[in-house]
Amino acid sequence: MAPIKISYVVSFSSQDPKYPAENLLSEDGVQPWLGCPKDHSRQLSVELQLERASPIGSVDVGNYGCAFLQIEVGRSSWPCDQPYLTLVPTVTLMTPADSKLDQNRCGVRMFKEADFSELAVGQKWDRVRLTCSQPFSPCSRFGLSFIRLRTPQEQEPDPPRPSLDALFPPVSLTLPIPRRSREEEQLRSCLGKLEGEAWSPAHLSRSARMVLLAARNQALRP
Fold first, then answer.
1. Which of 112, 133, 150 finishes a domain?
2. CB 3.0–4.6 Å: which of 25, 136, 144, 175 could bond 99 by disulfide?
3. TM spans, by residue (predicted)?
4. pLDDT tens-digit profile of 67-121?
């Protein structure tokens, strides 16, 4: 899963000059993006331009006091009046009780493809819009500390299938030639002496060859 770089901020509804929307471009996430202290609408939105159009596989968001968050996606080539598609429907980042007590403000939410709307999965996007709100605590400051986007995880190629030769190795049908036993050699030597020093079985008499064959057959028995 490769990181998707954010190029610049296209627009925003409100920002504190000390904590501008451009803080979302920082990779360290030290300084948050907060709304203007004079803005009492209790809702913020920011639109970000990605470095290139890419399918989105995951989104990590650092909260800073927001109760609700919605993420939408679009393309820079679209007309200005074309609505964006919902990537992540409105989710709760803080409960009403936590919002009123001003606790658990800085959690992190991680969204994956299973959390995305089906129409947005697998498409390439180069615009992301974040809309957050905090209706339960009218006096608290809120915004986002960071956003991280990544491409989908690449599918690993299937392992190579073994060849038929590996599954079924060739079987040699050549039978081993049994060595002549020591007894057979001794018998041949004796028969050769009796037959007048014949040097090969062809020179032995028929009876001598029969004795030699019988001895050989006996040696081949298991």
1. 150
2. 136
3. none
4. 999 999 999 999 999 999 999 999 999 999 999 999 999 999 999 999 999 999 9
Q: What backbone phi and psi angles, to 5 degrees, belong to 209? A: -65, -35
Taking a C-beta distance cutoff of 8 angstroms, is the pair 75, 28 a contact?
no
Q: How many angstroms separate the CA atoms of 109 and 91, rounded? A: 10
Q: What is the extent of the structural domain holding 206?
A: 179-220
Question: Has residue 162 been placed in a domain?
Answer: no
Distance CA 26, CA 171 (A): 66
Residues 107 and 206 in one domain: no
Q: What token pair was written down for 42?
A: 């209790």
**Rounded distance, CA 125 to CA 183, Å?**
89
Count Cβ atoms below 10 Å from residue 73 Cβ, excluding itself.
24
Cα 18 to chain centroid distance, Å, stands at 40
- Cα–Cα distances (Å) from 171 to 124, 162, 165, 166, 177, in that order, read 55, 18, 11, 12, 17
Which two structure tokens, joined as six digits, stand for 46?
């920011």
